[in-house]
Known about the structure:
Two copies of one chain form a homodimer. Chain A is of the alpha/beta class. The first copy, chain A, starts with 5 loop residues before the first helix and ends in a 9-residue tail after the last helix. In chain A, about 40% of the residues lie in helices and about 10% in strands. In chain A, strands 4-3-5-6 form a four-stranded parallel sheet. Chain A has a two-stranded antiparallel sheet with strand order 1-2.
Amino acid sequence: MQFSSKILEDAVMALSGLPGIGKKTALRLALHLSADKHQKSLKIAEALTVLHNDIKTCKKCFNLSDTEVCGICQNDSRRHKIICVVESARDVMAIEETNQFNGMYHVLGGVISPLEGIGPNDLNIDALISRIQTKEIDEIIMAISPTIEGETTIYYISKLLKEAPVKVSVIARGISFGGELEYADELTLGRSIMARLPYHAEI
Amino acid sequence: MQFSSKILEDAVMALSGLPGIGKKTALRLALHLSADKHQKSLKIAEALTVLHNDIKTCKKCFNLSDTEVCGICQNDSRRHKIICVVESARDVMAIEETNQFNGMYHVLGGVISPLEGIGPNDLNIDALISRIQTKEIDEIIMAISPTIEGETTIYYISKLLKEAPVKVSVIARGISFGGELEYADELTLGRSIMARLPYHAEI
């Protein structure tokens, strides 16, 4: 690309560092912003500066938060004895949107992935174990993606908790609601037959 | 979306103001930035602040520029007697990338579009006419998209220049190189037959 302006070029380079934003998209965005009369670029600049400087991870559950301890952990009307273990803050939002869970969360910050060089010590697993040991926790729910890495992480954590007086459960996996059997992958379909439930027990 | 953090929400709202960026994409970007260790958000914030404060439009050709008069207009080795009229700064970049043009540009800032409420006075047409009247210009090339609005704009400018001692030309339109005839639209194919050229004259 031949830029007539260094300022424009810098903006394009900065924006194209975002995931999924290539140089052409970054150029479209930068040209849009440079022609904009509503100070959109200043608003974005301000929001990103605040994001960088002020966003925290909750020191209890490691969810993204504006405060030292996040709103969910501070909420006394939620059930504090049940912890849902997730990979990322995005997953907390996804589960909150279902309105089906009223307990606490614990954000691991990823899953164990030797290929990407992520071991147990890179995740917030120690903090989870000490949360369970120091407080009376009834149940932890593993809401982690059923990939190889996710399964490895679930297995690793469940082994650490073998002796602890806590129930470890895992979210139901199977055919999606609205999904067609003929398009389901073999592994999911096979496992969903093996893990079949008595019909009346199903919610 | 249920945000656990107001700061995150503000960042998502600001980013989703960009064209082609919905709320889900904005959330993905904001989460990426909040987890980033390379100060990417600060770099973007700085680049966008500079973009907002310091970018100028060249006072001769209205191209985006860091200086009062852009690098192309200041370049004495380019041909100053030929002006290529384009819609936007993006088109200047596209033409510069072809390395086929060594003259000046004039950025209109859009095309005449009554439906969108854009009339001739909203575009840099007066400045183009006075450029042609005050300087000796040999030729202006209309490099404007062959849409209804674009054709209207070309017609409007060519009428204004009827009496002026300047050659008005328009970029060649027809079947794209590498394009297949059977997939070309009827209008383009029909016009490209009407506007056929003697074979040896073709470059």
